[in-house]
């Protein structure tokens, strides 16, 4: 990446520098990234990492491989694979998501807290269960040691 300064404005050239060919296997790619300083310092962008209007919540899975995000208009849930730099799956939601919480090491178990007092549980990217909460909530947290979900 090359940085130039014009009139106190930094300009970043993301396409400058060496790149690894797409046909190289992932094992060989990792080896090249370790050996070559230019590859280690390069910036790689995730394809389709956007929402039409706004992303309301973004969560990283505990293993650091997936990013799960929810956005509005139309309400949707998207999962991005950080290693493959691509969109893993996308689902439409019935209401805007307040919070997305991955409860497994990867994206296989995810809970979505929605604005309209509903909570959805996703398993392997598909909606497994949906239920209504007795009152409006704003946040949630998961205790892995006791397998408890706290909703407030």
Automatic annotation (TrEMBL):
Residues 1-148 form the Nucleolar protein 10-like N-terminal domain. GO terms for cellular component: 90S preribosome; small-subunit processome. One of its GO terms (biological process) is maturation of SSU-rRNA from tricistronic rRNA transcript (SSU-rRNA, 5.8S rRNA, LSU-rRNA). SUPFAM superfamilies: WD40 repeat-like (SSF50978). Pfam families: Beta-prop_NOL10_N. Signal peptide: none annotated. This is Nucleolar protein 10.
């Amino acid at each position: 990446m090359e940085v130039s300064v014009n009139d106190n404005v930094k300009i970043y050239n993301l396409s400058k520098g060496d790149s690894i060919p797409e046909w190289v296997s992932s094992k060989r790619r990792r080896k090249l990234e370790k050996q070559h300083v230019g590859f280690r310092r390069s910036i790689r962008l995730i394809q389709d990492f956007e929402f039409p209007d706004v992303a309301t919540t973004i969560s990283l899975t505990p293993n650091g491989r997936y990013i799960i995000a929810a956005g509005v208009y139309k309400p949707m849930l998207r999962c991005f694979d950080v290693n493959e730099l691509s969109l893993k799956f996308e689902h439409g939601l019935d209401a805007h998501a307040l919070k997305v919480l991955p409860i497994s090491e990867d994206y296989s178990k995810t809970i979505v807290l929605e604005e309209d007092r509903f909570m959805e549980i996703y398993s392997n990217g598909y909606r497994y269960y949906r239920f209504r909460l007795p009152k409006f909530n704003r946040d949630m947290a998961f205790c892995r040691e006791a397998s408890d979900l706290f909703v407030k």
